[in-house]
Design goal:
Structural class: alpha+beta
Distance between the termini: 63 Å
Number of domains: 2
Number of helices: 8
Oligomer: single chain
Strand content: 15-25%
């Protein structure tokens, strides 16, 4: 049996590691954020402790509890996924919840190195590789870049106009140029017969948009 301080260390570490990943999700306003990731990691660690410390005997299989944690977390992750038109969102958050459960289980059995390394790798994937992913060419996607005046509601007007052409916005990147101007890069998916030139003309006519072009 583990001592009380060993149990305390494992559960607190689960809270810290789950919070490190949840903090990143919270900053980008995802449906499962800081507290959700902490609770998933803590719950997985606690279930693992119960399976290894609470059940004994020749016919007892402690791995059964861990296996059910893996299955159960899938239902929670599915709740973060939703579809809007042809766009599916929440997959990355669902995957982070699934991985956080694995980290919690690693903490629960005392596999600290794997838990800490796994947390670092997850944070790196979520924060650093996102920039690389945006630059990867994706079939069917086009890139719009523009410079706009920094006014309330500008993104909404742009999105509304693109919506009239059935254009789906897949990703948005903002860059502050000056205090009054903002650079925007949009990864968009165009319908088959979209008139790119007409879209540029209409965007150029929106008040506050100073430059707009397609990136090849």
């Amino acid at each position: 049996m583990l001592t009380w301080w060993e149990v305390t260390i494992r559960l607190i570490l689960a809270v810290l590691l789950g919070g490190a990943i949840g903090m990143e999700r919270q900053t980008v306003e995802k449906p499962a954020g800081f507290r959700t990731h902490i609770l998933v990691c803590l719950g997985a660690a606690l279930f693992t402790l119960l399976s290894t410390q609470g059940f004994f005997g020749p016919t007892v299989d402690p791995s059964r509890v861990a296996a059910n944690v893996v299955v159960g977390i899938g239902f929670l992750g599915a709740g973060t996924i939703w579809r809007t038109g042809s766009t599916v969102q929440g997959l990355t958050t669902a995957a982070s919840l699934w991985t956080v459960a694995a980290i919690g289980m690693a903490v629960g059995i005392g596999f600290y190195f794997a838990a800490i390394l796994g947390t670092g790798l997850v944070v790196m994937v979520l924060m650093l590789l996102k920039r690389l992913e945006v630059r990867m060419p994706r079939r069917g996607l086009s890139t719009l870049t523009m410079v706009i005046r920094d006014r309330p509601g500008q993104l909404g007007r742009i999105g509304t106009l693109l919506g009239t052409y059935n254009v789906n916005i897949e990703d948005v990147q903002l860059t502050h140029i000056t205090n009054e101007k903002v650079g925007i890069t949009l990864a968009v998916r165009l319908p088959q017969r979209a008139n790119r030139d007409q879209i540029l003309m209409d965007l150029g006519g929106v008040d506050g948009i100073e430059e707009v072009r397609w990136e090849e």
